[in-house]
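Problem 12. The chain below contains 136 residues. Write out its predicted structure in token notation.
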Amino acid sequence: MTRNPTDERGATAVEFAFIVPLLITLVLGIAEFGHAFQVQGTLSAAAREGVRLMALQNDPTAARAAVRTAAASLDPAITDAQIAIGIVGSNAVSCPATGAGSTSVRLTIDYPMPSLTGFFGAGFDLAGTGVMRCNG
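Solution.
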């Protein structure tokens, strides 16, 4: 007895219905990961720009402005409250004018990235950090 190929159409539709959620989850995961990867790269670059300016000019206001300029593509934008500047290797609150020695400045950006698709939650907390020796 031979089977008619049209008898298999119902089984194919059921199998496809089982696979579609997995494929959609995979595609949304790829999109979410790609977006997070791009935002993380932007945060790292912005932290490097800000810490470089802070190490050379010792101006927190200019460093924060450089971070916001370097990360202008992010939505929502980075605020001053999300940018932390600290001195490593000393009890000072700013880079010493001379003889920096082992004193370094660290700039950290804490960024709550909203979810692109909303499928995996409301968002993710990302951070970008830059460290540079004072006075270059």
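Discussion. Strands lie at 83-88, 104-114, 123-133. Students who got a different answer should revisit the alignment rule from Section 12.3.
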